[in-house]
Amino acid sequence: MEYRSCFKRLSVLEFFRANINGGLILKNSNLLVGLDIGTTSIKAVVADSGKVIGAVATPNTGMRHGQVIDIDQTAIAVSRALKSVAEKTNAKIYSVVAGIPVGMLQLETATGFFNVGEQGREVSDYDVKKVIQSAIHSVAKDNREAITFLPSSFLIDGKTKVDDPRKMIARSLGVSGILLTAPTGPLHNIKKVIERAGYYNNFFVPTPLAISSVALNESERTFGSIIVDLGGGVSTATVIKGSQIKYANIDLEGGSDITSDISTVLSISKRDAEQIKLDYGYADSSFASKNGKFAINSIGTNRQRMIDEVYLSEIINARLEQILTRLGKGLAKHHYLRQPGGIVITGGTSLLEGIDSLTANGLNVKARNYQPDQIGMRNPIYTVAYGIVNYSYEMSEIDYLVNGVIYGFGENVDEEPKSESKSSKIFKSTASTSESEDKEAYNKNKMSNKSTASISKKDSDEDKPNILKSFFKKFFD
Question: Which domains can be identified in the chain, with CATH numbers?
Answer without folding.
Answer: 12-102+186-207+381-397 (3.30.420.40)
